[in-house]
Amino acid sequence: MKLWSWLSIAEIRKRRSDLARCRTTEHNTLHFSLFLSLSLSLHLPLPLPLPLPLPLPLPLPLPLPPSLVDPRGARHLLTSQHSLPGIPVALKQTIDLRTSMDGKYKEIAEELFSRSLAERDMLSAPYEFPEDSPIEQLEERQQRLQRQISQDVKFEPDILLRAKQELMKTDSATDLEYLKEQSQAFMDLYPKEMEREGEKEYQRVSISGEEKCGVPFTDLLDAAKCVVKALFIREKYIGLSMQSFCRTTASYLEELSDRPLDMGIYEEIPETSVTADLDQTVHPPVSATHPYENQDPACMPPDIGYGCKMVNGVVHIYTKKDSMDTSTELELPYPDLSEYIADMNVMTALIINGPVKSFCYRRLQYLSSKFQMHILLNEMKELAAQKKVPHRDFYNIRKVDTHIHASSCMNQKHLLRFIKRAMKKYPGEIVHVERGKGQTLMEVFQTMNLTAFDLSVDTLDMHADRNTFHRFDKFNAKYNPIGESILREIFIKTDNHLEGKYFGHIIKEVMADLEESKYQNVELRLSIYGRQRDEWDKLAQWAVKHQVYSNNVRWLLQVPRLFDVYHTKKQLSNFQELLENIFMPLFEVTIDPTNHRELHLFLQHVVGFDSVDDESKPEHHCFNMESPLPANWTEEDNPPYAYYLYYMYANMTVLNHLRRQRGFNTLVLRPHCGEAGPIHHLVSGFMLSENISHGLLLRKAPVLQYLYYLAQIGIAMSPLSNNSLFLSYHRNPLPEYLSRGLMVSLSTDDPLQFHFTKEPLMEEYSIAAQVWKLSSCDMCELARNSVLMSGFSHKVKSYWLGPHYIKEGQEGNDIRRTNVPDIRVAYRYETMCEELNLITQAIRTDELEAITEEEGNLCMGPV
Ligand SMILES: [Zn+2]
């Protein structure tokens, strides 16, 4: 293959026009090229050419022998339960995504892992961008320059004009011609759009001129291939498990793929009736009956008589209960282990590839600078748009606390008042049984030498303080009121002598507060430990018995990664037992709801799984093909993060297919990820989960950060929690992520330990706004993100965000509900399309290049 590096500009241009002439008239799809001078131009009234995803009517070359290409599409190869060890997804694409690293993934991944074990204090890890690199300095200088220019522009309209003329001055007349052509083509294609959007016009920053991304074409191509490969990997796993994948990204991937990605089939089917009364209200209708009331077995879906058992850590379903073998096995897809490990190695090798790292780092820097310019030019317009909307402001838009644990969702003052009230109201109630002898609440406090009067927030001592920083163990101890685990058991557990009565009451008080505030919602995490088979039923009975339900609350189930602890206590003998305790009840209730009625009702309000524990605990095991299967995992050591996540994902995938078959709601994976510890947790998160909590370490890994951006993976960030545990507030990357356009939201994590006021989520927003000087538009954008990434139903979101919220770009925004100006949404959308375009065009140009070369060779001979 010929390297298309430093050709003269004229030559490139000629090539381009030749290509355009002989191939297609849609020359704006071919505008990608190598460009030399980076010039910044401010297009004022002139509408900029939007990146148009026009399909290229070209036959794409097949780099693979036909035997490797499955006519039914790549997903099928993966999904069969009886598939042979998988082939990495890259090999199944028709587009040639081979890069310079191919064939070395396993070695690179293992090398990285062993290095992360050995050199924890390395100056800069292989996936990081070295702090004192000359490139970084160069970037900084460029940014300073840009800032200077933009400041001049702001203060002096004359300068603005001149700057525009200067900067727009392209290096030749042909370039200008080309630019004009582009905008004309855009106008021809979208004249109506532009008319309609006329008033929503804003000032766009665009890069024109020769070099678009600051790296040589070969590097760009290599990086683009890697990025696309990674996105295909995510798309495969997310689609397989029925989680949701960013639509815009999917449509770009689809252009490169030989098969339709049909992401639509995995999405919730939109109810048609939603739009009827939507124009009047932002409040979803509330059902008259309590969701836990309808327990009549006659109303329950019937038993379908399937059988299920766990084989190699993954549940298999059989159509008959009595003969569970391959003849009766139901064809439900789950991921192939060897394929998963191969994909994981590809991802790991990718994040440390030098040129890819450098490319992603530059793109991220560019995104930050571009946002700065956007704000500089459009801040007033954004504010004006917000002012124009009647009634709506930051206080009455919907916000979801996307990451909060039920056992610490109340603040300490609230818990204190509750304990005092309980001591007055139920002094004689037996709350605890020790060695067969019951203890009343009064006796419990007497043994601690305390009266209700003595209690204060200080004696409760549950607030995180400077001693918890980097000490997760000390932080965990803070969950015990007055340092006594018995009080934790009595007041904040669902499974105790009182069957969680007090905890149910206190959660209902929190719910009442939320309902009163109307616009705040939470996704509470409850624990399933996996020590016993009846944990799910007990939890559901707790919820139903105490009627713990609110329209403002959805549940997530968190599974602590504590196998080693239970194993040492002899509660579990192998890892598969843990998995069985977590997943078998879910399959049983899905097959026969009448047998677990409470659980069936409760599950309708559960949106997904979370995986929790201290990520900074060292891992001694590398997950590969030699790792023991769950039934053979009998070691003292805890399995690594990736191992937990893979088996949770695999079982959830089978469960989702079964639940979809029965018409029940499906679940998603939303683990704690990237709070501390090794970077490869974020790789697992990228591949398997719909969104993550924390994501702090993305700041160190540019490739992953760029990928999280392109896939628009939700990141629920909790800067106050981080400030107490892992990263001080002023170093938190949230403002940086937000400016680059990552899908971030604000969440509280543990109000009991970190917050002081009655509205912890507002406290979180308020501190962020003050410290980082967030604008009202930024805050509303964060709130909108939180609703988008939350697990509330499609119907509810249609009321909160607008009936068309699923649509891409500003069409999906309804400022009357979200208070986010269309300008901001349009900016985000256009910027992302530009990035995706840059990458997909690089690959396409390479394809075209290959074709023209072939044709050239053919022509040469006879003529
Ligand atoms: Zn948390």
Automatic annotation (TrEMBL):
Enzyme nomenclature, EC number: 3.5.4.6
Cofactor: Zn(2+)
MF terms in GO: AMP deaminase activity; metal ion binding
Catalytic activities: AMP + H2O + H(+) = IMP + NH4(+)
Xref: PROSITE patterns: A_DEAMINASE
Enzyme class: hydrolase
Keyword tags: Hydrolase, Metal-binding, Nucleotide metabolism, Zinc
Gene Ontology cellular component list: cytosol
Pathway(s) where this gene product acts: Purine metabolism; IMP biosynthesis via salvage pathway; IMP from AMP: step 1/1
Example GO BP: energy homeostasis
Family named by the database record: Belongs to the metallo-dependent hydrolases superfamily. Adenosine and AMP deaminases family.
Functional note: AMP deaminase plays a critical role in energy metabolism. Catalyzes the deamination of AMP to IMP and plays an important role in the purine nucleotide cycle.
Protein's UniProt name: AMP deaminase
Organism name: Oncorhynchus kisutch
Upper lineage: Eukaryota, Metazoa, Chordata, Craniata, Vertebrata
